User: What shape does this take?
Amino acid sequence: MELAKSLNRLGTESAFSVLAEAKKLEAQGKEMIHLGLGQPDFMTPKHIMDAAKKAIDDGHHGYVMSNGIPECRQAVTRWIKRRYNVDIDFNRILIMPGGKPTMSYAIQCFGEPGAEIIHPTPAFPIYESMINYTGSTSVPYDLTEDKDLKFNPDKILSLITDKTRLLVLINPNNPTGSFVEKKDIDFLADGLKKYPHVTILSDEIYSRQIFDNKEMPSFFHYPELRERLIVLEGWSKAYSMTGWRLGWSFWPQHLIEHVNKLLINSVSCVNAAAQFAGIAALDGPDDSINAMMEKFTQRRELIYKGLNDLPGVECSLPGGAFYAFPKVIGTGMNGAEFARKAMHEAGVAIVPGSAFGETCQNYVRFSFAASRDNISQALENIKKISGHKYIARMQGAASLALEVMINNFLFGNVGDNYQINKSLESFANGGLFGQGLGNGNISKSLPDAHSDFIFALIGEEFGILAILIIISLYLIIYLRIFFIYKLYEYSNRRRIF
Assistant: This one.
């Protein structure tokens, strides 16, 4: 059977692959500390669970409106009013089964061949996955250029062209834990006034997990941008409701009808019991959030200090969320090798940076949504492998780095061999006749595709036939050189005799 080529452009979320591998090792008897998944290790507050139970007991079992029950959407607007002092029409709020549908629908609204979508790297991987899936052009801005892993507003504005449809912002950021403060968001928002054709998708799902009592600079604060603003929010991180699959988003008025159709065509609606639980969460006390942030603050300090004490590891101080994103290349390992050794030798499940973008090969992500005891033990276990590799690096840094790079390139597992995987996807996407000059998508995400991966670029844009022609030309050149050499050799022999 022949499948749609667009399926080859879909990525995945490696945190779940890490979880599956860790669970497999646990089943074999290996002890494992889980610092991979991004979910709080707290119970959903009791008053929220009680609200869901009551909704079930009251008979809320059937279909509801695709955009969410009015009571839930109104609860969202009440929360926005309390938090940001902004009045929002509840009809601009859509209730979603988590945060991913908002990402997907927003990119589907604007993504198509020829369109450009600007997004951060590293970032939650579903963003780039959906951009590639729609055939639009991925335009990343690299957070690793800043030592604190924050975005540069000037850099973002410089990337906007007349083809830019959508700008994705994630603050606080997953996986880096970086937090961009209000003055920089003010600067960016002011600059965006010059580009009325660009819609902003502001991912604010970690808005309740900000450290040091800093203000959340929500894009709700900029009314002049509101008619081209999408805000992604929800309950999962703030209220420990990751498995409830409940989120909400704000949309420009002209997109409501279109997104509602996408909802109807995909998920129908979010179950009523979860929505009543969401109402109880937003209208109820914040005691659980405050208690959670006290614990996260303590854990942040522990993991920040502990990671920087490891030989060859550098980590910036997380400003929000519950992630640390250290650079580990100083150990003599890249992120993928470090994560692999952490799991198999130290019994600690973490996610390699390569899962979040091509610029992050030398990083790993730690989730500190775990107990202090588990974090301390994980750091102690990892110290043994990082210390050993650090000594090896000091003894022969150049040769070790080269060995790691070559082995990773040729033999890495999924997430390690990014270039190889993308190259193969390029060939598959090109098919027999290719996508046409300048129409390749996968090859645009390859580093130095114009040089190091020129063959993959040709394969996607011109197809297998073009590859065969090139190989044939090389063969003809080789044969011609061979025959010239033989003729020269024969002439010399005749001259001698």
